[in-house]
Automatic annotation (TrEMBL), chain A:
Source species: Acanthosepion pharaonis (Pharaoh cuttlefish)
Name assigned to this protein: COMM domain-containing protein 3
InterPro entries found in the cross-reference section: COMM (IPR017920), COMMD3 (IPR037355)
GO BP terms in the entry: sodium ion transport
Superkingdom of the source species: Eukaryota
Family, similarity comment: Belongs to the COMM domain-containing protein 3 family.
Domain COMM residues, every copy: 120-189
PANTHER family, alphabetized: COMM DOMAIN-CONTAINING PROTEIN 3
Family annotation (Pfam families): COMM_domain (PF07258), COMM_HN (PF21672)
UniProtKB/TrEMBL annotation, chain B:
Native organism: Acanthosepion pharaonis (Pharaoh cuttlefish)
PANTHER family with a match to the protein in the record: COMM DOMAIN CONTAINING PROTEIN 2 (PTHR15857), COMM DOMAIN-CONTAINING PROTEIN 2 (PTHR15857:SF0)
Pfam family, one: COMM_HN
Designated name of the protein: COMMD2
InterPro entries: COMM (IPR017920), Commd2 (IPR037354)
Organism classification: Eukaryota, Metazoa, Spiralia, Lophotrochozoa, Mollusca
Residue ranges of domain COMM in the record: 123-190
Length: 191, 199
């Protein structure tokens, strides 16, 4: 994991007891985590007494530091040595590690979902019709399935639907292929 | 089901009662050809010259036959009804047999042409799938996220379109199960009863 000098400076600034007193440090780290998770600035009331410029700098630096650590799945030992290099006390390091470890699974879930993706199929709606006749043709007499694949596109709040029809034979072919894919996934999961 | 011919239509087909069987056979061949591939007016002219009649008479007779064949095919008229429907035109027994044979031989082809003309919805054509495992992204390294990428080919009015989608194992199983249920439904007692009553 690589951390820029700006971030290291910001973190080091938080190590100054005058900038961030001991009782504010846990709230600072928690707020940085919550800021990422809630995607909205959530400032702990205990941090209000801090200098606003210092608060901005330290909060932003910790948020970057935490998201990089979650992104690279950095181990606790490396995080501790990084903080030791910035002269953090043992207590502060312990506090950071405990808050970070508690939030790491949520942070990584959020990061896993933060990516471009193809429309993701969430389910299917189906309807079975029996086609009797049309203006061009009588006695057609065949089943027709109307399918609607419900898909989600990341970043869009509304679900989309892809509609198409299938004859019985076409649906049998479609299901056959989906079964093959399911079996392949099951076999792969057993490896 | 009997086909009721209009007076105008009967008038057009009347021409065929006064010609030889070979001519009727040729007219049938032309009508079938036109239903399959569209009309070619030049044919009317050359046939008219050979038979020494107006091109219009030939055109009406061919169009009359095309109408007769497409209506009877549309209704899936059976042999007896077909003969009864044209009995009013006064054809000789030989010509009736030629027309009947031509109808029975080409009925399915004509129904396919009619079915092509019917309203077409985007329908399934093919599905390709691929199993991927996402191992890293810009925002998160060290992942192991299985993805099933699907390429769905649809067709509408002979034009194909493709849709690229993806899903996860859980949703794939669910999707498969749900569509299996849909397939089973057509075999249910209820559906079979409905189908039996309609047929």
């Amino acid at each position: 994991m690589e951390v820029s000098t700006n971030v290291l400076q910001g973190i080091t600034a938080a190590n100054n007891n005058e900038n961030v007193p001991d009782d504010c440090f846990p709230a600072l780290v928690t707020s940085a985590c919550q800021g990422i998770l809630n995607q909205s600035p959530h400032i702990d009331p205990r941090l209000r007494k801090l200098d606003q410029d210092v608060l901005k700098e330290t909060l932003a630096s910790f948020a970057l530091f935490i998201s990089e650590a979650a992104k690279h799945d950095t181990d606790v030992q490396s995080l501790m040595s990084l903080l030791e290099e910035c002269n953090f006390s043992k207590d502060r390091i312990k506090t950071f590690v405990s808050v970070f470890c508690k939030n790491k699974p949520f942070l990584q879930t959020l990061l896993a979902n933060t990516h471009e993706s193809l429309p993701h199929v969430l389910g299917v709606k189906w309807r079975l019709d029996y086609y009797i006749k049309s203006n061009h043709l009588e006695k057609t007499h065949q089943p027709v399935y109307l399918l609607s694949l419900v898909t989600e596109i990341p970043g869009e709040s509304e679900l989309q639907e892809l509609n198409f029809s299938c004859t019985l034979e076409q649906l049998q072919m479609l299901v056959g292929k989906l079964r093959d894919a399911s079996k392949c996934v099951e076999r792969f999961a057993q490896l | 089901m009997l086909v009721l011919l209009k007076d105008e239509h009967k008038e057009h087909l009347k021409f065929l009662t006064g010609v030889e069987v070979g001519v009727v056979r040729e007219f049938c061949r032309i009508s079938i050809e036109f239903i399959k591939n569209g009309c070619n007016p030049k044919v009317y002219q050359s046939a008219a010259q050979k038979l020494e009649v107006d091109a219009e008479t030939v055109q009406y007779a061919v169009e009359g036959l095309m109408y007769l064949l497409s209506e009877t095919s549309k209704l899936m008229t059976n042999e007896v009804d077909f003969q009864d429907s044209i009995s009013i035109l006064g054809f000789s027994e030989e010509i009736v047999q030629v027309l009947l044979a031509m109808y029975l031989e080409n009925r399915l082809m004509i129904r396919n042409v009619l079915s092509d003309m019917s309203m077409d919805l985007p329908h399934y054509y093919d599905l390709e799938w691929r199993l991927d495992v996402q191992v890293a992204s810009r925002s998160l390294r060290h992942q192991i996220t299985p993805n099933i990428v699907l390429k769905l080919h649809l067709e509408e009015d002979h034009e194909k379109s493709t849709h690229i989608l993806q899903t996860d194992p859980g949703n794939l199983m669910q999707l498969t199960k749900e569509l299996e249920k849909a397939l089973d439904e057509i075999k249910s007692t209820y559906c079979r009863r409905i189908v039996r009553n309609i047929d």
